[in-house]
Amino acid sequence: MPLTVTTWNINSVRLRIDLVLRYLAEAAPDVLCLQETKCPDAEFPRSALAKAGYEHIIHRGMKGYNGVAIIARRPLREAGRLTFCGKEDARHIAAEIDGDDGAPVLLHNLYIPAGGDIPDRDENPKFGHKLDFLAELTEWSERLRNDNSRAVLVGDLNIAPFESDVWNHKALLKIVSHTPVETEALNRLRDIGGWTDAIRHLVPQPNPLFTWWSYRSSDWSAADKGRRLDHIWVGEGLRPLIHSHHVRREARGWERPSDHVPVALTLAG
DNA sequence: ATGGTGGTCCTACCA
């Protein structure tokens, strides 16, 4: 039995619960990892998800901002939560699930800070926070490299690391999410942690691949000025199981959409 | 070069 894991920045799980249910009905992943739930834990829409067959849910949320959840058809075991930069801002949650070979797979769901508009830590503290967050994440990943062999790291990493991850590489070099200091930090995190970018493994450069299109564009599909901000990485032990993927681009055209679309990876022996 | 659109929750803040 293969294992399909989806990541999706939902931009309010309560406002878009019908889109979540639609996606689950159509794609039927084993696990759905959400970011930006913008929802306190007590108000998470558990019953609607349970009714759809997804009764195993762990959520770490807060009022108004951030928030991450892991939702599954099969049992989950809570596996901790990390805090970064001394902030309790609900940007990571972890869980364990049994893989298709019966051995556990560790899931890390992350929401990396967006970083504001100005790519300079002196002028823009949010950009400094993003870089500091990446530095702490890199230390963590380096320390735990040996434990990450059967781990999957997913989430809105808010960085498009490769040239073909943005609609125009040169035009975006000074735009937060594609500046060299960010892409180098993300590449270093990936390499130091022993992670493989599973989606790029399946869709190698220079094929363009996007998972996010700004709301500030009247015709997102025709203009297609997208970026690949949402990622699925796997540890060394899972690399041979990378089987297939799906970027659900059509979800950007659903009514009242998130600006991000679901990205799914199937692991199979 | 600029301003463009959304969500949360009442005043800006975040993306």
Q: What key attributes describe this structure?
A:
14 strands; Deoxyribonuclease I, Chain A; 269 residues; DNA-binding; alpha+beta
Question: How would you describe the overall organization of this protein?
Answer:
The protein is α+β, with helices and mostly antiparallel strands. The chain has one domain (3-267): Deoxyribonuclease I, Chain A (4-Layer Sandwich), CATH 3.60.10. 22% of the residues lie in helices and 25% in strands. It has 6 helices and 14 strands. It has helices at 17-27, 46-51, 125-143, 180-192, 198-202, 220-223; strands spanning 3-9, 31-35, 56-60, 68-72, 77-78, 92-98, 104-111, 151-156, 196-197, 212-213, 226-227, 230-234, 242-247, 263-267. It has a 6-stranded mixed sheet. Strands 5-6-7-8-12-9 form a 6-stranded mixed sheet. A two-stranded antiparallel sheet has the order 10-11. It is globular. The model has no long low-confidence stretch (mean pLDDT 97). The structure holds one DNA strand of 15 nucleotides.
